[in-house]
Amino acid sequence: MPIATPKQFAAMLESAQEGGYAYPAINCTSITTLNAAFKAFADSKSDGIIQFSTGAGQFASGLNNGDAAYGCIVLAEAAHLLAEQYDVLVALNTDHCQPEKAATFLKPLIEATAARRAKGLNNLFQNHMLDASGLPLEENMTISKEYLKLCVENEIILEVEAGVVGGEEDGASGSEDTPEEHLYTTTEDMVAVHEALAPIGRFTFAATFGNVHGHYKPGAVKLRPDILKDGQAAVMEKYGKEAEFDLVFHGGSGSQLSEIRETLDYGVIKMNIDTDTQYSFTRPIADHMLKNYDGVMMIDGEIGNKKMYDPRGYLKKGEAAMAARIARGCEDLLSVGKSIFGQV
Description:
By secondary structure, the chain is α/β, with parallel strands linked by helices. It contains 13 helices and ten strands.
């Protein structure tokens, strides 16, 4: 059962933390993109994380529906079936969910997992993200505690965020006039997050250190990984080694490989990869359309070329290119060859 059980997902996080590597977390929106992620993880012998945003759920639910939770259930159930073909572990996560959407998005998804568990089945999701980073920290922690309790009841790990990730990604955005200091989670904030949530249960933490959503040229994003180092040190000095955060890296496009690798030393065990895989998927499709324009289009009364406009042909090209980009992400994050499938 390659969709990780709660026990297996916890072991994945522990293995990454102890081994100094991280899992690529790939945003998927369709069967095609799910297949790309599974292929990449399997070819790389890397465990990994697949995640769905509210926008992905709306897309998957159909043009006339737009039900984000229902669409994510459809994608997750498909992932459970597709995963049976592979011999690596994959965890399912939801991406940014703002507090105002949580009641109609996170709660139905947690309930869907609870319904599965009542039948003796594996969790539908292993991880959910509540992004209350737009609120003052005290309010953020109040709602985070509420949802962490719901998650703990169903052996789900909650991902939280404090600080603002700049840029925009599928509805998650930092305001253009966000003060620069808010792009960096403070050491005091990191200690406060631990104190608020650790007594309730296990969580992962997206601390911000200058990271920005979107697509940027290499070196354009100015990261400060020392933010993570100092915050981890402060928490562990006060509460011991067992208080070390499982950190999440959002907005990695444009980061130098050396900076990405440095974050692994400070406890990053998950890095979201979305913008780069979107481009990788679309680029060969655009190439196909431009090179085969006369075949794709019925021009001047002609009938075109069915092989050229059959969606399977060009979508497979996108799938292959996306898989290649994910495999590169596994290399960047040092997860290649480190699957714990069959060990837990």
